[in-house]
Amino acid sequence: MRAVRFDEYGDYDVLKVVEVPRPESSPGELLVSVRAAAVNPFDNSVRRGKIAQVKPPATPGNEGMGVVVAGDGLPIGTRVMLVGPFGFGRPGTWQEYVIASPSEAIPVPESLSDVEASAVPVAYQAAQLALVNGCALVPGMDLLIRGSAGPLPTPPSSLPEPREPVALSPPPVAPIRPNTPPNWASPTSSTCPGSR
């Protein structure tokens, strides 16, 4: 199978496409055929040698999506988002096949394209953790999103209309009311710690 790999730290020119053996799933694991893999700042840091735990040769790719082709835990043909230490504790998603545990393979809603699903895990989980754990956001609270140039403001503002919490991964996603002005007089309004 083909994989993108670097054999030394450096700029983008150290990345090359190589042939590597296709992994085989063991009991309790899934073999996933990767359809789309996102590129994010973590991958850039790994390639440049800023994450000391990742030594060359290494295959980057911290997030992606694919289809289950073998293994235990999910039906063959299930479209999944890949959430786990890909590109950090093991080869990343910039290859044709990856091994994942069933808990690292989240079924993709039909409403998401392959490319959209490949970019959901890191940005949306970071936003979810910041809002739910950092800000203690709960249903019914108002949220003001200042700026929209980075990946963190985008996911909350693009979540669906208010409804019950949606389970994308083990912690629930808090419902957000996009395009609704905050009610500053509301006793449920809150400011995230450290915000101005």
Secondary-structure topology with pairs:
Layout: E1 2-6, E2 15-19, E3 30-37, H1 41-47, E4 64-71, E5 79-82, E6 97-100, E7 105-107, H2 114-134, H3 154-157
Q: Which structural class do you get from the secondary structure elements?
A: alpha+beta
Q: What spatial form do the alpha-carbon principal axes imply?
A: globular
* Distance between the first and last residues' Cα: 50 Å
CATH homologous superfamily heading of one domain: Medium-chain alcohol dehydrogenases, catalytic domain
Major sheet: arrangement of strands = 6-3-4-5-7
Largest sheet data: 5 strands, antiparallel
What is the average of the pLDDT values? 78
User: Order of helices and strands, N to C?
Assistant: EEEHEEEEHH
Give the uncertain stretches in residue-range form: 159-191
CATH class descriptor name of one domain: Alpha Beta
Compute the number of helices: 3
Give the structure's gist in a few sentences:
This protein is of the alpha+beta class and 196 residues long. Helices cover 16% and strands 19% of the residues. Strands 6-3-4-5-7 form a 5-stranded antiparallel β-sheet.
Descriptive account of the structure:
By secondary structure, the protein is an alpha+beta fold. The chain has a domain at 2-107: Quinone Oxidoreductase, Chain A, domain 1 (Alpha-Beta Complex), CATH 3.90.180.10. The chain has three helices and seven strands; from the N terminus they run E-E-E-H-E-E-E-E-H-H. It has helices at 41-47, 114-134, 154-157, and strands spanning 2-6, 15-19, 30-37, 64-71, 79-82, 97-100, 105-107. It has a five-stranded antiparallel beta sheet with strand order 6-3-4-5-7. A two-stranded antiparallel ribbon has the order 1-2. The radius of gyration is 19 Å and the shape is globular. The model is unreliable at 159-191 (pLDDT under 50).
